[in-house]
TrEMBL record:
Protein name, entry field: FAD dependent oxidoreductase family protein
Family matches, as Pfam families: DAO (PF01266)
Any one GO cellular component localisation term in the record: cytoplasm
GO-annotated molecular function: oxidoreductase activity
Residues in FAD dependent oxidoreductase domain copies: 30-204
Tagged with keyword Zinc: no
InterPro entries: FAD-dep_OxRdtase (IPR006076), FAD/NAD-bd_sf (IPR036188)
């Protein structure tokens, strides 16, 4: 019996979706996506939204959401607290853009769920960054000051009584609250993405795991028009 994490198991129990057929023979499409997690499914959806006539095929070795997308903590957080790291890696302009984009993406998840009636238990409740010992007090001051300096700060320092009430413990010594954070049921979200993608007309097929090089019969995929487009490999 295949083990399914709690979140995915709960989502599967509440749906009545037919499995996608296994890959058989050659498959031709404009775009081939390998992997039916958040990235693959959202890519398929966005492609079909931008061009409904596009022929999109998604290849998944197991069930859509069987990997990390269906077994994570369900916390949708921004990259604001990582601003200094982003600046060091990508430069100031890109760091600012990434912080803004990460906060926008959190709200976009909720908008997507509302638009397509995806019941993913989405809650935009915000997040609280706290200190629980004296060594941590003031630890976020520098990054929040930098965010404020560049006009991208969403954090507000809360009174200690509010911090302890919200956190449910008197061990918290200070706290900063940001409304740009949400929670979701990850299994329901990824299965909802699958449903929406199928409704928009992408083709999903099941293939053998890509790591099985020794026995897999590799089939070369190419776009209908041929040419020099990148090649994707599918296994069945």
């Amino acid at each position: 019996m295949t083990f399914r994490p709690f979140w995915l198991d709960q989502a599967l129990r509440s749906e009545h979706a037919a499995p996608c057929p296994p890959l058989a023979g050659d498959s031709r499409a404009d775009v081939c996506i390998v992997g039916g997690g958040y990235t693959g499914l959202w890519t398929a959806i966005m492609l079909k939204e931008q061009d409904p006539a596009l022929d999109v095929v998604l290849v998944e070795a197991d069930l859509c959401g069987a990997g990390a997308s269906g077994r994570n903590g369900g916390c949708a957080l921004s990259w604001s607290a990582k601003f200094f790291t982003l600046e060091r890696l990508f430069g100031l302009t890109e760091a600012i853009r990434l912080v803004k984009a990460s906060e926008d993406s959190i709200r976009a998840i909720g908008a997507f769920c509302q638009r397509y009636a995806v019941d993913a238990d989405y809650r935009l409740d915000g997040t609280l960054y706290t200190a629980t010992n004296q060594a941590q007090v003031g630890g976020t001051d520098a990054v929040i000051a930098a965010l404020e300096r560049h006009g991208i700060n969403s954090f507000v320092k809360r009174p200690l009584a509010d911090v302890q009430r919200l956190a449910g413990s008197r061990r918290h010594l200070e706290g900063w609250f940001s409304p740009a954070a949400a929670t979701v049921q990850p299994g329901k979200l990824v299965r909802g993405l699958r449903r929406v993608a199928l409704q928009l007309g992408y083709a999903c097929t099941k293939a053998r795991r890509c790591g099985d090089w020794s026995t897999a019969a590799r089939r070369k995929w190419s776009p209908p028009t041929g040419g020099s487009s990148p090649t994707a490999w599918c296994w069945r």
